[in-house]
Amino acid sequence: MYCPNCGAHNAENATRCVNCGNALQPITTPTANVPPPPQFGPQATVPNYLIPAILTTVFCCLPFGVVSIVYAAQVNGKVEVGDRPGAIESSRKARLWAWVSFGAGLVVIVLSVLFGVLSALLSAGANY
């Protein structure tokens, strides 16, 4: 260690500087408890997409949403028994069917609006 007073090099366990006699105190570096980084490898959690599956079932398209819920419900059970590839596949299918349900609901809403506007225009034109 180096003396903060004169800069002389001293032994690591020295209590006084060999050059100027100044009292030396070892410098300690604080340690911090750093949590481990999140895992993205084989031990990472597999998302089950249950909430999107339920929401798309209720608000978009019931038949496709139910399929999504079935696959979402399989994910955690497969993880617990150690079938990680099966859990990943069920997770992928749950996400896919949630998006299909969302898309089908969106198509139905857009078509309903278009037919409503078209119907209003046609009925307004029939009154002239």
Protein described:
Helices cover 56% and strands 0% of the residues. It is mainly alpha-helical and 128 residues long. It has a domain of 77 residues. Helix 2 packs antiparallel against helix 3. The longest helix is centred in the last third of the chain and has 43 residues. The chain starts with 49 loop residues before the first helix and ends with a helix. The model has no long low-confidence stretch (mean pLDDT 88).
Topology summary:
Layout: H1 50-59, H2 62-80, H3 84-126
Helix pairs in contact: 1-2, 1-3, 2-3
Low-confidence runs of at least 5 consecutive residues: none
Question: How many beta-strand runs?
Answer: 0
Which structural category fits the helices and strands? mainly alpha
Mean pLDDT: 88
- Strand count, sense and closure of the main sheet? none
Helicity, as a percent range: 55-70%
The rounded distance between the terminal residues' Cα atoms is 100 Å
Gross morphology is elongated
- Give helix and strand order, one letter per element, not per position: HHH
* Rg estimate, integer Å: 34 Å
In terms of DSSP E residues, the strand content is: under 5%
Number of helices: 3
Task: Give a quick set of tags describing it.
128 residues, mainly alpha
Condensed summary:
The protein has three helices and no strands. It is an all-alpha fold and 128 residues long.
